């Protein structure tokens, strides 16, 4: 604090609290709606205190989805989201860490070419190559499968960069010592590089878990079978019937279920989250 | 920076890069090449016959009023999302940088929207703004404002801008806060001793020193608005009414998947790729400059 200006500090607190309330308002209304009956919600204006239908609504969506439209259980969709988030996060970390290990600790023909190949993928987000990518995946028979959901999203330029940057800071003496002691490259990888990379891996995991869980366009194209929907897709399919027919209480319960796991990951692993966010975007 | 101590092996490095490279080729390069190839072709409605038409798809796009309109919508949408997102989060970050008590609690309560999927963010705001049952719709109506985004294009755009900005504030906030915290306290103190008040200090010292962060965030926010807001749009307005919220990415999807116009959609993909490449180049050139700063 540079100087003591109590009114300014009070103003700062007031602004922050106002910001937090405005940002949390949609979440609060969603929660209220998820504890109410559909009739309560359809009364205008809907009540703004939680009701007593919490257990009924959540049990209904978790075990049986909505009563019309999407009838796949949301429990199953959350499992699909979890598989997708874990496979993408772990897959990205695994293939990126070995690729950058090779690029930093070896000299081999085409090394730079491979590096640039990975770099260029930054410029090809899935949104701009939707249809051809979908065709490739459908030709490979991967529609409605976990492999089709995750494999095309596993290549990652950002993760490769992050590990490369980190490996470049590993002291040369470590590699030299390992070599003099007769350790081969893979031994060096497992015993030295991997333990040193723990914090980077944790940070990357948080970011990529959220990325995987929240994927939208890709599962929208790849999943036609309700049993393969992720939770985010499930919500979207539930509201496609229109304003009056939508079972908002159940949609909102599903929305709470879909946003809770990634939100918990952010809040509980806040330190890694902030680190990962700042580092992957450099 | 290059390592001098390296390992030697004739096959191991290739085996290590192989998984990443294989996925990159199959799911990135091959589809991108195909998008390029399709963009020169015209397909009949059943996808049975194709005909090479050269640049006709591009020519058709550039004279298509809907496409040019989509460009305008995208420009307006990303300007609003980036402008509102940066403004609000800079304000909050400045405030958070000032308070000492409860700083961590404030940060925690401000960052969670990052974890919400864009489609879910869309649904949350859709519910608040629903024409018949939305609670904000009700509030607006009692203030005498007729709210119905299903019919009003500008209201639909406002809805998606709010949802998209809401989700992005936490990201900007964290970067601004980190930027603010890295500004040397001695500069602020010196200015205070010279008699500069908080507003003066903000505009003459803090803001200029923060401009690299702001510029970086501007590029990131534009990329976000261009591509990552697909979920917001699809879950709420689906490009409507009458194309008022149809951003470029949504049009690629709509023309390719819903309208099955492979050539036109691929040509749009190619144009989008050029835009992404330009934005990436800007971002990276800038990162180099930031290191010097």
Please tell me about this protein's structure:
The complex is a heterodimer of chains A (282) and B (293). Chain A has 282 residues and is an all-alpha fold. Chain A has helices at residues 6-34, 38-42, 54-64, 74-105, 111-120, 130-139, 146-150, 157-168, 172-180, 185-196, 198-213, 217-222, 231-239, 248-268, 270-280. In chain A, helix 3 crosses helix 14. Chain A is globular and about 75 Å long. Chain B has helices spanning 12-38, 56-63, 65-98, 103-111, 118-128, 135-142, 153-181, 185-193, 198-228, 230-235, 248-258, 262-292; strands at residues 41-43, 50-52. Chain B starts with 11 loop residues before the first helix and ends with a helix. The longest helix of chain B has 34 residues, at 65-98. In chain B, a hairpin with a 6-residue loop joins strand 1 (41-43) and strand 2. Chain B is globular. In chain B, strands 1-2 form a two-stranded antiparallel ribbon. At the A-B interface, helix 1, helix 4, helix 5, helix 6 and helix 9 of A face helix 1, helix 3, helix 4, helix 5 and helix 6 of B.
Offer a concise description of the structure.
Helix content of chain A is 70%, strand content 0%. Chain A has 282 residues and is an all-alpha fold. The interface between A and B is large, with 106 and 98 residues.
General form of chain B: globular
Helical percentage of chain B: over 70%
Query: Helices and strands of chain B, in N-to-C order?
Result: HEEHHHHHHHHHHH
Helix-and-strand structural type of chain A: mainly alpha
Strands of chain A, count: 0
Radius of gyration of chain A: 24 Å
End-to-end CA span of chain B = 19 Å
Give the integer mean of the pLDDT values of chain A: 87
The strand line-up of the biggest sheet of chain B is 1-2
Oligomer: heterodimer
Helical stretch count of chain A? 15
């Amino acid at each position: 604090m540079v100087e003591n200006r109590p009114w300014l500090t009070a103003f700062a607190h007031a602004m922050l609290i106002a910001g937090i309330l405005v940002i949390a308002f949609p979440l609060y209304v969603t929660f209220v709606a998820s504890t109410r009956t559909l009739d309560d919600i359809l009364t205008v204006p809907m009540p703004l205190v939680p009701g007593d239908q919490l257990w009924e609504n959540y049990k209904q969506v978790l075990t049986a989805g909505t009563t019309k439209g999407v009838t796949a259980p949301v429990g199953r969709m959350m499992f699909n989201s979890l598989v997708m988030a874990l496979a993408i996060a772990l897959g990205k970390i695994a293939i990126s860490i070995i690729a950058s290990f090779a690029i930093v600790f070896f000299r081999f023909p085409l090394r730079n070419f491979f590096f640039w190949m990975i770099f260029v993928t930054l410029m090809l987000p899935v949104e701009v190559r939707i249809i051809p990518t979908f065709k490739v995946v459908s030709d490979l028979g991967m529609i409605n499968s976990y492999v089709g959901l995750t494999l095309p999203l596993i290549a990652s330029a950002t993760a490769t960069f992050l590990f490369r940057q980190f490996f470049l800071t590993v002291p040369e003496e470590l590699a030299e010592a390992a070599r003099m002691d007769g350790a081969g490259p893979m031994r060096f990888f497992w015993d030295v590089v991997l333990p040193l990379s723990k914090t980077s891996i944790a940070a990357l995991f948080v970011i990529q878990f959220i990325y995987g869980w929240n994927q939208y366009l890709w599962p929208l194209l790849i999943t036609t079978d309700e049993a393969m929907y992720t939770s985010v897709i499930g919500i979207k399919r539930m509201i496609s019937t229109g304003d009056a027919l939508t079972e908002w209480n159940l949609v909102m319960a599903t929305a709470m279920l879909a946003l809770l796991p990634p939100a918990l990951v952010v809040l509980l692993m806040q330190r890694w989250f902030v680190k990962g966010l700042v580092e992957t975007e450099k | 920076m290059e390592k001098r101590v390296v390992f030697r092996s004739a096959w191991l490095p290739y085996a290590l890069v192989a998984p990443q490279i294989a996925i990159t080729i199959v799911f990135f390069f091959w589809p991108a090449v195909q998008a390029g190839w399709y963009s020169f072709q015209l397909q009949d409605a059943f996808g049975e016959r194709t005909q090479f038409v050269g640049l006709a798809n591009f020519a058709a796009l550039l004279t298509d009023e809907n496409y040019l309109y989509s460009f305008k919508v995208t420009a307006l949408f990303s300007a609003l999302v980036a402008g509102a997102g940066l403004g609000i989060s800079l304000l909050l970050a400045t405030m958070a940088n000032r308070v000492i008590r409860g700083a961590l609690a404030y940060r925690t309560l401000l960052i969670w929207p990052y974890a919400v999927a864009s489609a879910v963010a869309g649904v949350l705001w859709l519910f608040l703004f629903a024409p018949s049952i939305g609670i904000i719709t009700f509030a607006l109506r009692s203030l005498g404002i007729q709210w119905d985004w299903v019919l009003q294009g500008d209201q639909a755009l406002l809805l998606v801008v709010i949802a998209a900005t809401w989700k992005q504030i936490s990201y900007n906030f964290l970067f601004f806060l980190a930027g603010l915290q890295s500004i040397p306290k001695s500069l602020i103190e010196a200015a205070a001793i010279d008699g500069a008040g908080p507003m003066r200090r903000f505009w003459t010292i803090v803001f200029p020193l923060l401009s690299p962060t702001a510029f970086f965030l501007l590029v990131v926010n534009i990329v976000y608005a261009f591509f990552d807001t697909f979920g917001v749009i699809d879950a709420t307005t689906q490009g409507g009414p009458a194309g008022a919220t149809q951003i470029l990415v949504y049009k690629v999807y709509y023309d390719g998947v819903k309208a099955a116009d492979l050539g036109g959609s691929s040509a749009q993909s190619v144009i989008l790729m050029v835009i992404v490449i330009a934005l990436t180049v800007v971002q990276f050139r800038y990162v180099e400059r930031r290191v010097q700063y």
